[in-house]
Amino acid sequence: MNSSLPNIDDLEVFVHVAQRSSFVAAAQHLGVSPAYVTKRVRMLETALGATLFHRTTRRVVVSEDGERTYHWAQKVLDDVDHLVEEIGTKRKTPRGTIRVCSSFGFGRRVIGPALSGLGAKYPGLQIRFEVFDRLVDVGAEGFDLDIRIGDEISPHHIAKRLGSNHRVLCASPKYVKKNGTPKTLAELANHDCLIIRERDHPFGVWRLRAGSKEEAVKVRGSLSSNHGEIVVRWAVDGCGITLRSMWDVGPLLKSGELVQLLPEWTQEANIWAVYPTRLETSAKVRVCIDWLQDVINSPDVLPGSVSSLSEVAQSGAVKRKRRAPATPGVGTGANGSPR
Questions:
Q1: Do 284 and 262 fall within a single domain?
Q2: 87 inside domain
């Protein structure tokens, strides 16, 4: 065998550097030192007899040879993953690494606990989970699966709906007693609204639907944040009106800490699993999607409390439900994909 053939681990390290244009960022993602990353890339360059990056003091740029290597490295790594999956499928035990991402709130409260149960059931799976406050390009950033809320999805990806969800207007009884209840959407302009700075939404514009009627209303208020849990806390404290998902505020509405306003007006915001087309037949992605769909559709998540989600995920004792088919490039273009 040719001893100068590239090492699989070196190819993986190279791909992470190329995706992030940074040796340091790649090292942080992989949980290793920058020196280790530099060493592996140099070994790959030696094996290939090519310079893969142009380095300056400020940035790392993929060379022309690096672009070609990146294309082939992704294919090689995918083929190795598929080999592992195919053998694992025959043993009915999925194996290999699966990289999953989601948003801060939904990721922490729902997806994280669910993935712990998946890992316990399939110890051969290496699960890498990250949360973000921005929209993630799953293919370009090296993820296998993005669990997102909102119906606008790139046509270059495959999307499978995991659960139905919608956002509602709500406030605390304390706020309503002090400021009154809006009777129309237009009256929201006269109220303190708690605004979330979404990644891909116009700031302070809420699009809502009542039956076949859709309206966009401009809202304002003195408090805004990029974190949904903070905004919900402000709402409970009586600071204003917010627009939040039922998976998030359902328990608070049930307990009376929040009350729903203008209940005929809602915003659709379904829960989706989004993944690159190259993983359409991936066994590990399919297993992960099936598991998450069962957990998300349990009474603990939609629309009720998530307090016992960890127990549900660990036991896997959730009845199978009929699943919606995977849909390439689903998107309404109306609600965006905030978390």
A1: no
A2: no
Asked if residues 274 and 148 have their Cβ atoms less than 8 Å apart, the reply is yes
**What are the distances in angstroms from CA 287 to CA 100, 235, 274?**
13, 37, 14
In a domain, 74, yes or no: no
Q: How far apart are CA 296 and CA 332, in angstroms?
A: 22
Q: At what angle do helices 23-30 and 34-48 cross, to 10 degrees?
A: 110
Residues recorded for the chain: 339
Give which of 126, 125, 155, 128 is closest to 141, Cα–Cα: 128
Query: Can you point out the beta strands (E) in the chain?
Result: 53-55, 60-62, 96-103, 125-132, 145-149, 157-163, 166-171, 195-196, 205-210, 213-218, 224-225, 242-245, 259-268, 271-276, 327-328
Both tokens of 34, joined, read: 């920058």
| 23 and 110 housed in the same domain | no
Instruction: Tell me the pLDDT tens digit for each residue of 118-157.
Output: 999 988 888 999 998 788 888 778 889 999 998 777 778 8
261 with 241: CB under 8 angstroms? yes
Q: 55 by DSSP, 3-state: which?
A: strand
Q: pTM of whole model > 0.85?
A: no
- Could you check whether the bond before residue 303 is cis, i.e. omega within 30 degrees of 0? yes
